[in-house]
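Exercise 7. Predict the joint structure of the components listed below.
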Amino acid sequence: MPELPEVETVRRSLLPVILHKTIETVELRYERILQHCSPQVFQEKLMGNRFLDLVRRGKYLIFSLEDELELVAHLRMTGRLIFYSDCSIPMAKHTSVVFGFGSEGALRFEDVRKFGTLDLVKRGEYDQIKGLKSLGVEPLSPNFTQASLQALTAKSTAKIKALLLDQRKIAGLGNIYADESLFLAGLHPERPAGSLSDHELSRLHGAIVQVLQDAIGNQGTTLRDYRTGYGQEGSFQNKLQIYGKKGGKCPRCGVHLEHRKVAGRTSHFCPSCQRE
DNA sequence: AAAACCGCCTGTCGGC
DNA sequence: TGCCGACAGGCGGTTT
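Solution:
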């Protein structure tokens, strides 16, 4: 579910309400959410600990704790991290973990499909978290430029959609924002990455930045499961141009949209505005 | 290097 | 109405 804009929205919404709060209780309701840590160690090290900061890398959320520990979360498809100021609110059916702050509320990890993950590591020690360790450039950082995109695509024979989804290249794009970026840039998802001209790379770079910023400004895209850290829906689903518009018409030229599997994912595009 | 599978889970939707 | 397969914001591992 959540891609960069959703994860960033969760980060911004959670940070002010969890900062400096002390974890008094850890209720582990789905043990397999832990990747490289035993339930015993997880509970022992977190109880009595405090949240000192919350940062994002790609689609990962990293909570800084005391004792130089970090809690690394990934929401995968249907994970939610929601702060409840009122602990008497009934538990959602698929609640994996509850971090209780006594009378100060609780942070709950809810996840219908249970693909979401948690890791507890020493600060910066990500050797076991391969996806985090090998993340590519942050697309909203100054490091992401037309030149850096050129360096990633040059000599690549991969389809551009597959490259955009590769977290080792660019961190944070998923199926929605890859399709939206390619539409905005007027590029077919199956174009070989290395075939893009300077002008096309410029358009793609601008499109990625614009789409991600616009989506963050709208608190992300709620198709079904995604919620902010306050449990609210985003609104960017109302601004999607192409994703999920099967059977619809191109908002730019009016022709019927097409969709096909690219890199194993359903991809939406306009056959007129995005030529092969 | 790249692409195609499978598995992990649960819920929803469309077709028959 | 009911059943059954396809599919869904992701990603790691294995095979081709």
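Discussion. Helices of chain A lie at 4-18, 39-46, 130-133, 146-153, 160-165, 175-185, 198-217.
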